Amino acid sequence: MRLKILIPLVLCASAQWSAAQTTTPSSKARASKPATPASSAAQKRQARKVFVLNVVKTAVALPQPDPQDRLRVLNSAASVVAPVQPETAKSLAKEGARLESDIIAGGNQPAVSILSSGQVDCATMADFVDRLAPVSLAMAEDSLVAAITTCPKETADAARLKVETALDSGSIAARPLMALMERSGAKSRWSQEVFVKMFGALPDATTPLAKKEATNYAAMYINMATQVDPDTAKEAGLKFLDWLAKMPPQGERNLAVNMTTDALKQVLGAGYEEALAKDVVAKGIASTAGQPGEVEHPEEESVSVLQAMDNKGKDRTEEISKLPSSLRAREAAAHGFAAGTSGDKKLADRYFDIAFSAVDNVWSNRTPENNNAAAVVEEVSEAAAHVNPVAALQRSQKLQDPSAQAISMLAVARVVVGQQ
Amino acid sequence: MQQQNKIRFGIGRIVRLAAVIATFALLSGVALAQTTFSNLDQKTGWQSCTVCAGAGGNGAVASLSSRLGVSSPAMDGASRQFNVGGSTKYANALWWKQLGANSGASHFVYDLYYYIKTPTAPQALEFDVNQSRSGKKFIFGTECDFGGTHTWHVYDPYNHHWVSTSIACTRPKAYTWNHVVLEFNRTSTGRTGFVTVSINGSKHYFNRSYAPRASGASEVNVAFQMDMNGSATDYSTWLDKVKLTYW
Lengths: 420, 247
Fold this sequence. Notes:
Chain A contains 22 helices and no strands. Chain A is mainly α. The longest helix of chain B has 27 residues, at 2-28.
């Protein structure tokens, strides 16, 4: 019912805003009573505000059955509406924080962390940490680090308890641990005890988790090795090298070996070789130190908007239509932006037809493993909004899935908020 | 089996890479003579200042330092660590690396990774490319304003002020690498053009341009600035795989 009222409101706001956009100083209105530039600017600002508020309300009211999509929408809506109506942003962020907590409790990693958005207050952060079960920590690393670093006074004590409980049951949350150790100080009793516990409870070295975390463990080792007594540093260092020896050869392992052997040499000095002589496994892996290593960053699909701008005037729709859907959406959007902002609205429309159609494909084929669909929706919608926000909003509302519609509409509203 | 998987994975990546290169070549339509400066974080010759980094080039004093060849954190085994500190709130520290002059370049892609342990400490982080040519200075200045508007800002060189965009700039994830790619151009009308920013693979369009300011210099450089917050919290940022491509 709400939606039925809101959609016409958005279209009405679009029409008003569109009129405000196209009114020129030479329009008829000037002949009778000229509007001052200041009032015209104020009128445009007001029209933009109404447009944005209506779009946000409509997007939030659309059904998002998947909680991850709902979280994305709330996160985006809170940040879009913040400069226009801060109290609404706060309320959306609060709902988002609660949902983020529920997703984690359900054993899933949130698609985005609204706790990192800057819109969530410390009381909500503290509530989030209180509700967090230690068993879910692996899914909550980003959220927990955001809470610890943003509101340390309100969250650090509770967070310490959670990560320590998790550690006692063999689960290491490396990044929250590092944040808490930094907060407590490397010399604190808590940090020193946790350091010993951690290197005695490393996970299976052959898992993807190990690959992801190896350099974080090494970073923690480097930070703490000179702060604990040399025997403790030696024992933890050898355990860690033994663990690294079980990892398949890869860049992350090389980096961690380099980092750990450097730190061990620094702590033990002449005793380094002697310590290794007593642990043949550690000695073997330490002998590989010096090999090049690199942290693997998730593959990012990207298109060059600069190159699309160099192509303006040329019709590339045929080549673009042959690309895989996600790349097709981004490339068509870049070309649509280039054509539209250089004045060729007709060609821009053709590119955006391709882009939005590809967005529907991307959205319907998304999987939990390959889930950049929301980023594609935003990228395409933003590009279109820079050319013509009203037309972009209409395209958003024609997307097949309501969640994609909401994400797209919010991306359009974000561009309108930023217009000068 | 593991070896086979590795080979298959490797072939998969090569095929994907070839597809991307083919697409790139197909869509660019022209042979582009690009110049790339890679691993700038590992180069010597970075210069710095603190007072110059403030408003009007006359800001507060911060203590600053940088160190190259840092093994942890590092993506490729060696990053550059930048430190800012002191007791003056909202003081800033700026570092830049001169890359020689090129008056013909009009398209710039600044690509880097940064790592931070205390995302609440910075008021803002700034990433710039500067080009001076033919009596004009094009300051492609961008900053992620974590502490204030939570948006990206772009710099209006002619009017000497920052302009807020609506592109969200949330505090970065702590203890992890964040990837930033910025696209700039000198527009056909001779303006300082801000095209896009990509943050960990999510691209947003700036779509802004401003008039350049006057300058007698002839140079291209990249810059990085760390702004302190209202509590003057000391902090460090690590940069790795810093790259500038222009054509």
